[in-house]
Amino acid sequence: MTKFDNVIEMVEKKSRFLGYLLRCQKQEQVQEGLETLRKEHKKATHICYAYSLKTPFLEKAVDDGEPGGTAGRPILSVIQKRGESDVCVFVVRYFGGIKLGAGGLVRAYTKTTSEVLK
Prior knowledge:
The chain is built from three helices and five strands; from the N terminus they run ββαββαβα. The chain is an alpha+beta fold. It has one domain (6-117): Impact, N-terminal domain (Ribosomal Protein S5, domain 2, 2-Layer Sandwich), CATH 3.30.230.30. The chain is globular and about 40 Å long.
């Protein structure tokens, strides 16, 4: 069971966004975190994430079914702008019935990531 360093919740037009911060140094830790969240949030619509590892340098962004570039990339962008490394941010989304559009998704994922990294 993965222990997360910070957890926050935000609501945007009835959709719930849960941000999880995981300090990690290996891809295996990211995978364990993802498996933990998939078990804990079986009914979640999406579990999007991005990570940046220092050694070896590795970055990845995953949209998990959201429109391309609207979730994983914004998460990774915030991580990069803050100069963070050896970190993974997961954002679990429960769809609230109101479509946010591409811009709304980018804003929601960016805001959730910024808050969980504070």
